[in-house]
Design brief:
Pfam families: VTC. 25% of the residues lie in helices and 38% in strands. By secondary structure, it is α+β, with helices and mostly antiparallel strands. It has a single domain, classed as mRNA Triphosphatase Cet1, Chain A (Alpha-Beta Barrel), CATH 3.20.100. It has an eight-stranded antiparallel beta barrel with strand order 1-6-5-4-3-7-8-10, surrounded by five helices.
Length: 228
């Protein structure tokens, strides 16, 4: 399993006007990240939770330590799929991932977790054990567009996520196009992620007139849109 690297992450909900201003500014000074095709790319994730919705309630109750599991692919390309574990521990967090095949993903969607019984990767082993012991289930699909920028010092990454849709029709995970209900009232979520420090000029670059931080959780919002 990859080495755990704790990172800082700050989120801000911004308007369409400030999204346009900020993306124009960022494109002048930073390069897009390696996943970009053109300016933005699509992300689709399927989140798993226990039958008691422990990950959902951990977030809603404001618990300091939280973890979520999801499978994810990009730009409707099912040839590259990852299982990811995202952990939040106080003000910092980390993410671990392992590649899986489409066949494995299809079986996980159907709750046929034995496809991971002989997996060698520690994260796949952990997910298998938790699926079996905690009765994990696929809960909600989240689809959205992302424009992402990267800067080496501080391992800094700036993302703007928009046009989010959510669906509990988990068997539609590999269907083309947007599925589910669109997130209302939020034009864009700005996220700034970095390891130990954020360069001052980057901090100045991402300033907008909307400076209120948010704990915006795509998983929780997706569950709300589909009435839990």
């Amino acid at each position: 399993m990859s080495e755990i690297c704790y990172r800082n992450e700050f989120k801000h909900e911004i308007s369409q006007k400030n999204k346009v201003i900020l993306t124009s500014r960022l494109r002048k000074f930073l390069k897009h990240d390696e996943n970009s095709i053109g300016n933005s790319y699509s992300i689709r994730s399927l989140y798993f939770d226990t039958i008691y919705d422990d990950a959902y309630w951990d977030k809603e109750d404001g618990r300091s330590y939280r973890e979520k599991f999801r499978i994810r692919y990009y730009n409707n390309d099912a040839s590259f799929i990852r299982l990811e574990k995202k952990v939040k521990d106080g003000a910092v967090g980390y993410k671990q991932s392992a590649c899986i095949t489409k066949d494995m993903a299809d079986q996980l969607i159907q709750k046929k977790y034995d496809c991971l019984a002989d997996a060698n990767h520690p994260l796949l082993q952990e997910f298998y054990v938790k699926c079996k012991s905690q009765c994990m289930e696929p809960k909600v699909i989240i689809t959205y567009e992302r424009e992402a920028f990267a800067y080496g010092p501080g391992n800094t990454r700036i993302t703007l996520d928009f046009d989010m849709h959510a669906s509990t029709q988990v068997t539609s995970f590999f269907h083309d196009g947007r599925i589910g209900i669109r997130e209302p009232g939020i034009d864009c979520v700005l996220e700034v992620k970095f390891d130990n420090y954020l360069p001052d000029w980057i901090q100045s670059l991402v300033q907008t007139e909307e400076i209120t931080s948010t704990s915006h959780s795509k998983y929780v919002i997706g569950r709300h849109l589909n009435q839990i």
